[in-house]
Amino acid sequence: METNAYLDESRDPLAIAERWMSDGKEVAIATVVETWGSAPRPVGSHLVIDADGNFEGSVSGGCVEGAVIAEATDVIESGKPRMLEFGVADETAWRVGLSCGGRIKVYVERVG
Which residues belong to any copy of the XdhC- CoxI domain (predicted)? Predict the structure, then answer.
């Protein structure tokens, strides 16, 4: 029987964010808010990031995680949320790997 990592509480990004915050870590949550085309993660998918760049979850199956983590550490520091957009029409498409087509919007906010 196959298991879904998101049903496993020990791997649930939101549960991990709660644990990190209870340990006194500063945390940001990135949430997929819109997709178009071949985006590999559905709306509502989460990636949690701490101030040291540790992360859990996924917003794109690896295509844009590095860029989102970099932005999230800035969001943690500034406290100001950001809407990030990636896609083939975007100048970052080739750099972050969405060259297969599609578009994704990710909202990043500090929590806790």
Answer: 20-87
